């Protein structure tokens, strides 16, 4: 007898429905599985058999053939266990036919028949909706995540036996309750108030958050670079519901989903590989930049990162997505984040002007060359960070994240009104930048900076983008002379000489 | 045809000298192995025949003959292919200052504007040299010297090396307008050496001139640097050294300048700094103390020049306070804010204006350095 159920496989960050067909026919007892299963899927046979027998089901001692369709799609992960067991139970007559019609089944089986959670429940629930299913059945721990999906019924089960337990015609399992989406970022966590007495750095952080401008902090160890970077998510605008869903979806797939969905902060170590940073492997898995989607990617010790790894960041920074091409297809994963980097002023970290620095000029040159190389044209701002003095460190706490975020949010609203929803000045195109309104005084200052060779053509656009953000923060319609004056200092300069 | 006769005014004898130097390159390198700085000028004082005899005795005859065999068409062709012009000492447009000494170059091959040399006035030019591995302050000083000198109408001569030389050229280019700076190279004038100064080489070529006594395409030798130093020293009435270790090549330039009767100036530095060792000892030995372009102009004896450095008094009190904070060692925004108590935005915008006016330099990493003393 033939039975069919539906499950899902995660491919990058995309979800694809997989039809699970099981045929039980006469012949020597065997259990064959076809359709490009990976090892975890292949082993499903053992789990399914034990789980069924331990749940009081009759495991048919006949020739069993299971097929996962489409046959050319690689299937991975243990999430097919439940769908296999479901189809087999129907084929074996243990579960009435039709009971699982229109339901997606996702879950790993334990040998005792209980259902375990899998990664990517939200993404799969949305996949079920896209596939036009009635609902999706997941393990109980996956319920809150999967139930975030709108427009699809999510039910949870604890054990395989529940597939037949209810006597009525209704679907198996219990209704799932969605988890809270932490859309309001007022929460415990690092707060900008901890940053004491570094007004220039604060200003740079605020501008970076408001306009989504990349920021490079250069300063000796202990100057507060990491402390500052970790506080950037707390002053970014609160996540809109659809943005929070994106974050939850990616977190679910990668197993990094926290109980409160907020702007992610990712700080990969400088030994990270290219695949680890932008995503890759086979099957391709999301990298750090996708995990940082809608949040902050912090690259500490920027010059220590391998050049080819940093080069790989260019495209995603431009596009807000990462495209990975493999022999078997292209994968596109979201990656829109604010890039924050930190670097010591020289290899020893003390800095050129410190008498204790004994780095050779060549070493310093190489170091600053690394800084001005790879991503220089993708990082709008560079600030020099110095160790705050004792008075300011012991002084009163600075302005809290909440207040700064209010200014950032109102500036962001002005940008969205100008550029479109979800946009910020940091990703304004050339054409958009050319359309920014500039006061005559600001134009004159720009002209003077260009004439005295302080500013190149490429730097010009960068100053306009930063100036626009400063004007938005100040509520000005046009970029004023003061905005340009400040932007000229905050901007990253070409060459570090 | 016309352009050819315009551009190549050097006679064939003098041109052959350049090609001979290139041929003798490796021989002179060996001969000057121990002290290229001292011996090169002596050697270059020899005439062609003696020079070949001294450097390559075994192959002298052959080399000399082949050099004499170089035809005008061939050499002119090479010069034109390298888009270079050439002048020699028999030519009225050759700078008179280079005619005086025994070891003076016979011929100069260059790119850029040849009229710069034709109207050469050593009293309106200053040679600025210094360490290839300077401090940030040194770089900032060289850059502002270059800029302010060029603004005052003084042509800045330097060697396009890394460090101080490059910064002096850059400063002069910043002043804007043509004819502000000349680079003297130890390799062919068409070659950008060091390679990192490719862009600078191109800019100086279009805005000023790049010259050398070596033929186009020739590589730099260890001896060719002191050789070009003697040209730099001879071109200007004043040679200014910004940062030099003891034994630095810049001191050779200063020596050459003194021995050919030119003035030498040096920018002083802290006695503890190895990069001030050379310059401080120059001052002790009688070099003029240079604080800014005004001091150089004074040493040149240009009368009635109002270029007296930076008068911070005519700036508003806020700018003055920021300038003072920078001068006292605050190297980034936060300490300046700490010192002045001004809001960060105000400090940032003041810094921009001070930077545009050339009173402070801001590095690629955002470090701020004062360029001149606040008076």
Question: Which terms would index this structure?
Answer:
heterodimer; A: 497 residues; alpha/beta; Ribosomal Protein S5, domain 2; Rossmann fold; Helicase, Ruva Protein, domain 3; 3 domains; 5-stranded parallel sheet; 4-stranded mixed sheet; 21 helices; elongated; B: 375 residues; Arc Repressor Mutant, subunit A; 2 domains; 9-stranded mixed sheet; two-stranded antiparallel sheet; disordered N terminus
Structural notes for this entry:
The complex is a heterodimer of chains A (497) and B (375). By secondary structure, chain A is α/β, with parallel strands linked by helices. Chain A has three domains: 2-175, Ribosomal Protein S5, domain 2 (2-Layer Sandwich); 192-419, P-loop containing nucleotide triphosphate hydrolases (Rossmann fold, 3-Layer(aba) Sandwich), CATH 3.40.50; 428-497, Orthogonal Bundle (Helicase, Ruva Protein, domain 3). Chain A contains 21 helices and 17 strands. Chain A has helices spanning 39-42, 44-54, 81-91, 121-130, 143-146, 162-165, 199-211, 225-230, 232-235, 241-254, 274-278, 288-291, 307-311, 314-319, 361-372, 390-394, 401-419, 430-434, 440-451, 457-474, 481-490; strands at 2-11, 14-25, 30-34, 63-69, 103-105, 108-109, 115-116, 135-139, 153-157, 174-175, 215-218, 265-266, 296-299, 321-326, 329-334, 338-343, 381-384. Chain A has a five-stranded parallel beta sheet with strand order 12-13-16-11-17. A four-stranded mixed beta sheet of chain A has the order 1-2-4-3. In chain A, strands 5-8-9-10 form a four-stranded mixed beta sheet. The longest helix of chain A has 19 residues, at 401-419. The radius of gyration of chain A is 27 Å and the shape is elongated. The model of chain A has no long low-confidence stretch (mean pLDDT 88). The termini of chain B are far apart. Chain B has helices at 2-7, 12-31, 36-44, 48-55, 60-68, 72-81, 115-118, 136-151, 164-174, 198-207, 224-235, 249-259, 274-284, 293-300, 317-327, 333-340, 344-356, and strands at residues 85-88, 107-112, 125-130, 155-158, 181-184, 209-212, 238-242, 263-267, 288-289, 360-362, 368-370. Chain B folds into two domains: 1-307, Rossmann fold (3-Layer(aba) Sandwich), CATH 3.40.50.450; 312-370, Orthogonal Bundle (Arc Repressor Mutant, subunit A), CATH 1.10.10.10. Chain B is an alpha/beta fold and 375 residues long. Chain B is 47% helix and 12% strand. Chain B is built from 17 helices and eleven strands. Chain B has a nine-stranded mixed beta sheet, with helices on both faces. Chain B has a two-stranded antiparallel ribbon with strand order 10-11. In chain B, helix 4 (48-55) runs antiparallel to helix 5 (60-68), helix 9 (164-174) crosses helix 10 and helix 11 (224-235) packs across helix 12 (249-259). Chain A binds chain B through residues 197-203, 218-219, 343, 345, 351-353, 360-362, 368, 371-372, 382-386, 388-389, 391-392, 445, 448-449, 451-454, 482, 484-486, 488-490, 492-497, and chain B through 133, 135-136, 139, 170, 173-174, 176, 331-335, 337-338, 343-345, 347-349, 351-353, 355-356, 358, 362-368.
